[in-house]
Amino acid sequence: MVKAVKLRKGLDIKLKGQAAYSDIEVARGTMFALSPDDFPGIVPKVVVKEGDRVLAGDALFVNKHAPIVSFASPVSGIVKAVERGERRKVLSVKVEADEQNEYRLFSVPNLQDATAEDVKTTLLNAGLFGYITQLPYAVSTTPDTTPKAIFVSAFRDMPLAADFMYELAGEEDNFQAGITALSKIKEVYLGINSSEEETLGNIKDATVTIFEGKCPAGNVGVHVNHIMPINKDEVIWTVNPTAVIFIGRLFLSGKTDLRRKIAVAGQCVTNPAYSNVIVGQNIGHILNGRINGSNVRIIKGNPLTGVRACERCHIGPFTSEITVIPEGDTADEMLGWIMPRTKMFSASRTYLSWLLPKTREYDCDARIKGGERHMIMSGEYNRVLPMDIYAEHLIKAIIAGDIERQEALGIYEVSPEDFAVAEFVCSSKLPLQSIVRQGLDILRRENA
Known about the structure:
By secondary structure, this protein is α/β, with parallel strands linked by helices. Helix content is about 20%, strand content about 20%. The strands form four sheets. A seven-stranded mixed β-sheet has the order 1-13-12-11-14-9-10. A five-stranded mixed β-sheet has the order 16-15-19-17-18. Helix 4 links the parallel strand 12 (about 190) and strand 13 (about 205-210). Helix 3 (about 170-185) packs across helix 6 (about 240-255). The longest helix is centred in the C-terminal third of the chain and has 16 residues, at about 430-445. About 45% of the residues are buried.
């Protein structure tokens, strides 16, 4: 019997522009790029030179602190450029792709007989081990860590997020193979919602738990907090559900196949829908002719946890959606927030919109609508964060640099995305996700 966890805290934010369950073909383009910034916690060392020919699956860069962990090229072709920024920081490695992908074939063990070391070695050889993230610190993991469990969340509930069940259609065997491979390393815990029980409730080689509640119920950090809280010196691995499909393809075909389906959503997108792409594909080719408006913000990810992007950028390995919303900086609103608005969402019942049906979708733009101010201890973070931590006290401890206090308040089991909804409702307009990321990075250096 599948266990169910009922979450009482959270906040669902329904925005206009949700992607329809249909596919729109997009231009593949010729230039692909892989960015080290998409893998938090690594220090990249480029192992290719401009002009080198690579196959899909060949390493483009490695983690300097763990050179055995490589990151594979998503396509075959010629290395066109190693783009660097300030102090020669590696921004991306660009590959001019062949018309047809040519894959590097890897020797893979039989999943039924494979050991944990067999699985790790295969993932390392194919450049997929770095797709595994670890808690604490929410960074790309290394083979010298020993997890006490592996967590996978198979549903997404952030506003305008892609539906993983639509992405999973036709990939069920690969997903199962990925779960089986990971289970050879450690016990796998799979989090789903009630609508996915029919498809994933009987998945093999995993302990399945249904999480019912509002956003961020789909966050893997929430699942860890309710099933297996982390103590100091403990490690848990987390794997994005799409990365599970990548791993499954590797063990079934011997190839590093980074094809995936993403949602193109947002109120400034004409005909929001899904598209089949490859990791590293150019965003401009995906959005070509689909942007409705001129003053817009392109986001790589959903509006709460995504990063600002442009049409020259490339999608990352964990990008499940591209959203386009109005910038909002030219909006002219009479009397501002004083007006009794019915078309704008408010978590604090500032507008009359809270009286309308909960199924209504709202407009959204990129404005913060206020400036940063002193932090108010009002309990508003705890109302939307379904985790057993004191969120506001933890944020204050991070800002103050009090490491002992951070440890006592549970920083080891959080990641920046867990504070996305809290950042949305924050009346002090604090960049909570950036604060948590900075705190985790400092703690990691202190404990190194």
